[in-house]
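Consider the tokenized backbone below.
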């Protein structure tokens, strides 16, 4: 008796993408199936050491590959944890991870772009349908009696029936497509395993038939011999000594570990002995993982205890701002039955984590010595690194040193250290402005005041800047200040406006206030602007807004003070006019154009344009 099931819509979508986008790199299907087998062995390995019911079980983990050139079949077997009927349905028929779903819906449909993306994202079990017409998965869950077979041609449906299987674990039979039958060959399989699965920490055996000839001439006989050979070293690379390993070993391990076809940018291999004994192997990828900015991103670090896999689902193994790191932590001191729930509080792990963060930041500092290499790193991971400014107090100074900024003087990638070295003697603070994009920031009228003094302003337009930068009070004992805040502007030593000038603008300011009403907090005169107006916020409000954002609320729009430049020709001419209508219209226009510079848009575009037309007409 077999039961028919249909694949979830997303699976069909995934299968479709896989077949049409990844076809140039079909061989990775074997990497994915071996990685699943290895995960299944990891899980059972852990249970035989921690679960009372499985403790007496004899368990010698293996992965075994067989093939038949004539039948064009390939078989991958493991004696791992296995799957029961429900698990076959939920693991091989649905996509449980919400991240995967939203990943799929975010794909553009552009095959080239998508195939790069989909390569980064672990393609998993379904990649087997790139090379096969039919797949049968037979599985028996450890500790259970029944075995089940799952069968599908990857076209919308699969069937499940009861089957026979002696040992626990999973056997996958692949019926290769005609054009992919070359995978059913000893050399092909050995090559792929060497390339991607050399350091899977379990033995991978290959069964093959060895054909020999004996005798001479008419007596020549063909002798066939069934052979079984281990084709990987099965060593946990992170436990090996550095001098035993070549760059290639690290690169290849990374590719299979991170399911990434691009080489890692850097790796950091550490073996520590002494009070604590542990090994870590971390990789910095070249390209950010696709889920880097998703709330449900997948952790890239696996925890092992004495080579036994414990978890790959603990986001606290490294701080969140290092979530792009891939790698392994293997401790000799943690107990095997350490509860996954309380891992975070474990003292040993806290120590390993702190040391690991130092190591990783140190390696990033090394990359930063090479400007070009660091730019590549920074484009991918700079924003994430910034998050560390408010979560990792201890390493704040280190992280600050790793940041790079654009500035009002046209720098693209300047560090705070370089900024500081360039500061004029009389400059007391480090100035920054945060906005929607760099173009708008560069056009901000407030910057003129800084230009006049020869001061440089850091320009920031990453979304995360608004959250983190205001929490940085100082760098190397120099305070950081928001350049457009009125408190900061005072510090620049604004010149006083002469009383008679103030008086000559009285009427204009009164009409402007009447016209703009609640839109602005105040309207004041200023001398050192070359633009007619600037909008200036205050620090108190900026801090409030940040607090609100940190609590997940969108702060209300903040009213700003409008500064009028007393020596700008527009205002010079306008101040003596008796035409009240013209004054009111100009008030709106100046305000709207200041807003435009700030945010790139005006609220009532129609009104704005009508008003502009009306004013132009008047002048003609
Ligand atoms: P992932 O490995 O990222 O979870 P896959 O598509 O590769 O995604 O596999 C889906 C799931 O199917 C796995 O999480 C696992 O639960 C199950 N699975 C796949 N292969 C095996 C296997 N050989 N033994 C046990 N479970 C397996
Ligand atoms: Mg997998």
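A designed sequence for it:
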């Amino acid at each position: 008796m077999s039961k028919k099931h249909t694949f979830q819509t997303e699976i069909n979508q995934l299968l479709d993408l896989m077949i049409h986008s990844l076809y140039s790199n079909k061989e990775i299907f074997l990497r994915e199936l071996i990685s699943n087998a290895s995960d299944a062995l990891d899980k059972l390995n852990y249970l035989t050491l921690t679960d009372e019911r499985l403790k007496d079980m004899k368990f010698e983990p293996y992965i075994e590959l067989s093939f038949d050139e004539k039948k064009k079949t390939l078989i991958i077997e493991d004696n791992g944890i296995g799957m029961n009927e429900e698990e076959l349905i939920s693991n091989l028929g649905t996509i449980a991870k919400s991240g995967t779903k939203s990943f799929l819906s975010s794909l553009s449909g552009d095959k080239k772009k998508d195939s790069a993306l989909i390569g980064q994202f672990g393609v998993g079990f379904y990649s087997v349908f790139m090379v096969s017409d039919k797949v049968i998965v037979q599985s028996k869950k450890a500790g259970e009696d029944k075995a089940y077979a799952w069968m599908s041609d990857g076209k919308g449906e699969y069937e499940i029936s009861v089957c026979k299987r002696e040992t626990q674990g999973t056997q996958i039979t692949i019926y290769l497509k005609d054009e992919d039958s070359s995978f059913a060959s000893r050399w092909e399989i050995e090559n792929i395993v060497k390339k991607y699965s050399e350091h899977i920490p379990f033995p991978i055996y290959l069964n093959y038939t060895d054909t020999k000839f004996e005798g001479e001439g008419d007596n020549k006989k063909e002798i066939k011999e069934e052979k079984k050979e281990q084709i990987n070293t099965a060593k946990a690379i992170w436990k090996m000594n550095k001098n035993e390993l070549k760059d290639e070993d690290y690169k290849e391990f990374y590719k299979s570990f991170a399911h990434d076809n691009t080489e890692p940018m850097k790796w950091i291999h550490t073996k520590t002995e002494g009070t604590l004994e542990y090994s870590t192997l971390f990789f910095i990828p070249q390209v950010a993982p696709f889920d880097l900015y998703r709330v449900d991103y997948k952790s890239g670090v696996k925890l092992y205890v004495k080579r036994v896999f414990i978890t790959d689902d603990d986001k606290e193994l490294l701080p969140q701002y290092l979530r792009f790191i891939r790698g392994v932590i293997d401790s000799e001191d943690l107990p095997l039955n350490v509860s996954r729930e309380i891992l975070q509080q474990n003292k040993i792990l806290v120590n390993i984590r702190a040391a690991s963060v130092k190591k990783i930041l140190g390696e990033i500092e090394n990359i930063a010595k090479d400007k070009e290499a660091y730019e590549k790193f920074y484009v991918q991971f700079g924003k994430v690194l910034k998050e560390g400014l408010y979560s990792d107090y201890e390493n704040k100074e280190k992280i600050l040193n790793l940041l790079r900024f654009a500035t009002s003087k046209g720098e693209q990638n300047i560090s705070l250290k370089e900024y500081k070295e360039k500061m004029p003697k009389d400059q007391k603070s480090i100035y920054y402005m945060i906005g929607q994009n760099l173009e708008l920031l560069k056009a901000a009228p407030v910057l003129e005041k800084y230009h006049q003094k020869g001061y440089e302003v850091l320009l920031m337009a990453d979304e995360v800047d608004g959250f983190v930068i205001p929490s940085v009070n100082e760098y190397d004992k120099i305070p950081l200040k928001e350049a457009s805040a009125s408190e900061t502007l005072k510090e620049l030593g604004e010149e006083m406006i002469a009383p008679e000038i103030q008086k000559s603008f009285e009427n204009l300011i009164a009409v402007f206030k009447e016209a703009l009403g609640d839109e602005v907090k105040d309207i004041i005169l200023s001398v050192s602007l070359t633009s007619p107006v600037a909008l200036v916020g205050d620090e108190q409000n900026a801090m409030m807004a940040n607090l609100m954002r940190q609590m997940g609320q969108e702060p209300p729009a903040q009213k700003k003070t409008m500064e009028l430049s007393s020596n700008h020709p527009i205002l010079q001419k306008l101040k003596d006019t008796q035409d009240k209508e013209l004054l009111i219209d100009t008030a709106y226009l100046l305000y709207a154009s200041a807003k435009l510079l700030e945010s790139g848009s005006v609220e009532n575009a129609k009104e704005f344009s009508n008003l502009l037309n009306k004013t132009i007409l008047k002048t003609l």
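The mean pLDDT is 89.
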